[in-house]
Protein: Ribosome-recycling factor
Organism: Duganella phyllosphaerae
Amino acid sequence: MSVADVKKNAQERMTKSLETLRADLAKVRTGRAHTGILDHVMVEYYGSPTALSQVAGINLIDARTIGVQPFEKRMAATIEKAIRDADLGLNPSAQGDVIRVPTPALTEERRKEMVKLCKSEAEDAKIAVRNIRRDGNESLKKLVKDKTISEDDERRAVDDVQKLTDKFIADIDKMVAEKEKEVLTV
């Protein structure tokens, strides 16, 4: 393993942490309806849990309503129950062959809870990035101990890993600030 490998590995893992945060923040509800809210809803389909997007078409009817169109009509009741049981605070209602999922307006208190949730997710991502930095630094120390690189090379590489860490933490802060602004917008 070389210094370049350590840096590349750290960057790839930090990028994955950032993508995980992006996915987690997409699930946080804002005042507007968006189809991402239903991404992790699982429906019982022929005895196995299946993602809602695999058994129904999901679209926006208007700014506050999501429309779910089951591919099979007999799945409507199952889909409706799965959305209700997903603990999202949503109350779907079937109208013909379309399930309407209205998203209730968020209260100020609920918006503040959502912001806290976003900040908690961000802190988890920062911890993951810092752990990756620590792993990278330990790998560099091991390279010095094995006499593969010099201590000067290690110092430069540790500085590079720190710069990478700072960049990713700044990206996390920026991402959370945007989401916070989105959540607090009425």
Summary: The domain at 35-102 is CATH 3.30.1360.40 (Gyrase A; domain 2). The chain is about 60% helix and 15% strand. The chain has a mean pLDDT of 88. The chain has two domains: 3-27+107-184, 35-102.
